[in-house]
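Input sequence (631 aa), recorded before submission:
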Amino acid sequence: MSLVSAFVRSRAFEDEDGPARPRAAHRRPCRHWLLALWLLFAALTPAFGAPPPGSQQPVLTLSRQAAGLPAVLQLQFFEDTTRALGIDEVRTPAQEARFTLPDQPLRGQESDRVLWFKLQMQLQDPADAAREWLMLVPTVSTRDIRFYGPFDTTGHALAEPVVTGMRHPWATRPAASEQMAWRFELPGPGVYTAYFRVESTFARIYDVTLWDPADYLQSTQDKRMFDGVSYGLLLGLTVYGLVLFVVFGEALYAYYMLACLCGLLALASINGHALRYPFAHWPAGAGFAYTAGPALWALCKLQFGRRLLRLSHFAPLLDRLVQAFSVALLLAIPYAHWGAHPLITFRLVQMSVVASTAVMVIGAMFAIRRRYWPAVLYCIGVGLLLAGIGAIVFASWGWIEWAPGQMNVSQAALVAELVVFAVAMASRLRLVLRSEQALTARTQQLVEALGTDALTGAASRAGLESRGEEWLRNGQPFALMLLDLDGFKEVNDGHGHAVGDAVLVQTVARLRAQLRASDTVARLGGDEFAILVPGRPSREALAQMARRIVDAGLQPIEADGAEVSVGMSLGIACNPEDGRTLAQLLRCADQAMYRVKQQRQGPGFAFFGDTHAGPARPTQAGPLAGGTGIA
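Predicted structure, C-alpha cell format:
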C-alpha cells in the first residue's frame, strides 16, 4: 500500500467518523505538518519502509592491521540441518537468502551441527592486490572445515577448495597453524566472496580474523612461549611425582604423576599440538586425545584428591561418592569418542567434574576441621582452577561471550592447580615425617621406660638406674663395671654406622656370655656400657670376670662383609667401699677406666681402689665423659 493511498484512507476514515468524534479545529494544522514530513521522507527514500540496498550484504574492507582485522561483524552464517549441502547449492539464490548476521556474534552454545559462513571482502588499497592474506578461524576442535573461493563478481572461484580439520592429517593445513587458517589473495578492486563450511561437535559463532601472514606469525610468539613454559612445568611436576612414587611407593604420588601427564595431553590437544607433533599422520589418535585427555586428567585428579584429603578416613560417604564419579568418568571416555552423542557425554563430563570438585571441597572442609592442613592448600588449588576454567565453560554453554584469552587463563589455572597440589604433597610429606619422628621418639620413650636399649637389647640408662637404686635402697652390695670400646670411632668412620651398630650388638652378646644370669648389662650411650654384679664377689673373681670380658672384646667381629677389631677399657668400683650412691660409683669406675686408657698397657682393667690416689680424670660436663653419667 502506497503512502498516498494510506493518507487518503485515513482522511476518509476521519470524515466518516467526524459526527461521532468531533475534532478540534486547532489540531488540523499539526496533522498537515506531519503529512508534509511523511511525504518529504517518502520522496527521499524510494522504497520507504525497506532497508537500503546492500544493508544485508556487509562488505569487509581489507587493510593490514598489526593485531589482525576482525571480521566477526561482517560474517554471515546459516545452519545446514541436512548436513549435505555443497558449495554449488549454497550459492543458489534460495540458500544465499538464508545467510544472516548473528544477533550476538561472540556468543553461541556449542552443539553438534554443520554451519556455513560467508564473508564479502574488498581491498582498501589497490596496491595490496599482490598481498597474501590469512583468514584465521580460532578453533582446533573442528572435525572438518572447508574453504571455498574467493569468488569474484562473475561467480568465478579464484582458487581450489581447501579441506582440513581434526579428521584430516596435519599436512592438509594450508598455513601450518594449530588453529584453522586459510591463505588467499584478491587480484584487484571489487567485491569478493569467501565461504567456509564447519562441521564440529563444538561448533559456535567464530571470531574470524584476517591477517598478513608475517603479522600472524609474529603474534603467535608469545603464545608459543607461554605454551612452552606450561608444558615444561607440567613435565617437571611429572618427574617430581615420579620421584616421590619411586621413593615412597604410595598410590597418591602415582595419581599425581598421571594427573600431570594427562593435563599435558589435554592442553596439547586443546592447543592443537597433539595433531601437529605426535599424531601428525594419525588424526584419529589426535581426536581420541582431545576427547579422552580432559576426562583422564579429571579422573586422576579425583583419585589424587581423595588420597591427599584422606576421605576414606575423614568422610567415608563422600569418598564413595567420589569413587562413583570416577567410575562415571571412566565409562564416559570411550563413549565420548565412539558413542552416538559425544556432545552429551562432553556435557556430562563437564558437570561431573564440577560436581565432584564441589564434593572434594566439602571433603576438604571435613579434613580441615581435623587440623589436616594440606586440605587448605588443596582448596586453594581447586579455587584457582575453578576461577580459570569458569569463563571457558560458561562460554561453551552460551552464557557469556567467547574471548581468545579465555583459553590461556584456563591453561594457566590448570598448571597453577598442579603446582599448588605439589606444595600440598610437600606439606603432607612434612606431616608424615613429623609423625614418624614423634612415633620414633615415643617408641624410644616407651623402650626407655621399659629399661631396654632399642638397638642391643641390653638394659638402658633408665634400666640401670632403676636396678642400681633398688639395690641401694635395699642395702644390697654390688660391684659396677664401666667400659667403653677402643677404636670404635674408626670403625664407624671407615666402615659406616651399619657395621658400628653390628659391633655394638655383638659386644653385648659377648658380655652376656661372660656373665652370670643375675648380672645386668646396660648400654649407657654410644659405645659405653655398664655391668652391675650383685653381691660381694671377691677381688679375684671380679678380676677374672674383667679379664674374660677384655679378652672376648679383642676377638675380631664380622659385620656386613667386613672384619673389624676393637679393644675395651674397663674400670671397676664396689659398693659400699668406693661409693654409696650410683652417681659416686659411676664416677669412681670412670676414673679407673680413664687410668687404663692412659696406661695403654696392662690387663685392660683397673679397680678404683688401686687408682684413686693417682691423677683424676679431667672434669667433664657431667659425671661421665660423653654425657653417660647419671645425675
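Checked by second reader. The chain has a mean pLDDT of 82.
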